[in-house]
Structure formats: C-alpha cells, structure tokens
Amino acid sequence: MDLNNLRLFVAIVQTGSLSAASEKLGVPIATISRRLGELEQALNTQLLDRSKKGAKPTMAGQQLYEQVYLSIDQLAQAENLFQSARLSGVLRISTFSGFNPLWDKIALFQARYPDVQVHCQITDRVVDLIEDGIDIAVRAGELHTDSVIAKKFGNIGNKIIAHPNLLAKVGTPQHPKDLANLPCAAWAKNGQREHHWQFAEQAVKIQPILASNDSHALAHFAKKGQAFVMLSDYFADQLIAEHGLAEVLTDFAKPAYPVHLLYLSQRHPSSLVQAFLAVCE
C-alpha cells in the first residue's frame, strides 16, 4: 500500500471532494483520481462514493479513514517540524594556521545554517576532543590514533616563494641546497631548534631569520621581500596572484600530505557535526 495514496485519500475525505483536495495539495486532479483508483485496487474495495456534490467515504472508506487519519496527520506535523527546524548552537572546530580552504567551507556552512555559531581554535598541537570541547579537528599528515573517525578533506602541498625584489638582491636558487645560504622564514613548533625543508628526494637544513607557527607571519616576511618561505600551495598561489610573489625551485618536487576532519568515534555525531561534514563533501 502506497503511503502517498493514503495521504491523498485522507485529504479527499477531509476536504469533501477531489477538486478541493487537488487545490489544497497542489496535485493535479487527474493524479488524485488515478492514485485513488490504485488504492482501491490495492485494497480490492470501493472507498468513496462520488457525486456532483463531492465525495463521501463508503463504509469501508470510513473505517480506513478512522484507522489512518491520525497517523497521517501526525506524520505531516512531524515533517513540518523537521522541515522548519533550524540548526542552532555552537560548532567548535580546531584547525592549523593558514588552512584557507576551511574558511570557504565554514562560510558555506553558516550561509546554510545562520543560527549556528562557529568557534574556531587555531593550533598545531594535538588536542583532546573531549577535554578541549572540540567537535571537529582538522589535521594534516598521517594519523596515529584509532580513537577518532577520520574523514578525508583533501591534500595539501607546499611551494617556496619569494618577492621579486629579494630575488634581484640575492639571486634565484637553482638547487635546494642553495637555501642554506639564503634568508628564510620557516614554520616551526615552539622550542624547535633545527629546521629542515622537505623535498621529495631530500631534506635541506636551513637557518631561518624567523621561525613561527603562524603561516601569516611567514607570509608577511615574504611580502616584505625579507625571506624565502615555504607555504601551503593554496596560500602560496594566493600570494603569487595578489602580491606578485614568485615560486622558486619548481623543478624539485615537494611532498603532499592528506588533510582529515577528525571527530570522536565513541559517540554518534551530533546534527551540527553531520551538517558540517556534509558541507565538506
């Protein structure tokens, strides 16, 4: 038995005619008539007596109506409730510095769910999702935990860029080893003493004039023509397009790293988490 046919039947009984039900539901009267016929055929009984004045349920039709109308009405109310319900609350996200693609997803999420406030924590340390109250953590690189569910967001590569003024002053490096004698600004964790830039086939040790865990600080030094910097490919492309910086060492491949959205595996994801994950698909 088709549930939609039952809905149409209930609407006919409640409105008193096929034409009135058609107007109420916005369904062509021919469709309603056909669906009613399908329902009567499925039940092998006549449900309505039709006349010029309208349609009245037969004895069998009245019995069917009394059995199903409350359930149909409650189902309609439930559908209206969920359709009109708007997500609200706070979604707490932890991500690393300079991951610009995430901001596009957050903007799209908030356009869809304007009643949700997003609180974004910028950190590169390992977070405890429960203790830190984080719903979703965004992390790059290989994962070393089985306590979370990881959903692939994408990949992140690296580019080395510099200002044309700096290239004119110190020259353009031809090989990664040349970086050892050039001014560089490098991403680093707190207390990190040695700094290496990784290439596909080698790692080059550098002596940065600035070390920071803030990608925007490194970008500032690049834009000022003070240092070579290694930044994520999307951030580097933005600086190249908007500030005229140039990529160097393009013939030397740099590794790419996966980026994942992490959330707790021990609990069913909340509606906020599910909605954000859907936006990121």
Automatic annotation (TrEMBL):
Instruction: Name the Pfam families for this protein.
Output: HTH_1 (PF00126), LysR_substrate (PF03466)
Keywords in UniProt for this one?
A: DNA-binding, Transcription, Transcription regulation
What would be an example GO MF term here?
A: sequence-specific DNA binding
Q: InterPro entries this protein is in?
A: LysR-type_TF_proteobact-type, LysR_HTH_N, LysR_subst-bd, WH-like_DNA-bd_sf, WH_DNA-bd_sf
- Record-annotated HTH lysR-type domain positions: 1-58
| Gene3D superfamilies membership | 3.40.190.290, Winged helix-like DNA-binding domain superfamily/Winged helix DNA-binding domain
GO biological process entries = DNA-templated transcription
Describe the family membership recorded for this protein in Swiss-Prot or TrEMBL: Belongs to the LysR transcriptional regulatory family.
Q: What is this protein called?
A: D-malate degradation protein R
Q: Which gene does this sequence derive from?
A: dmlR_2
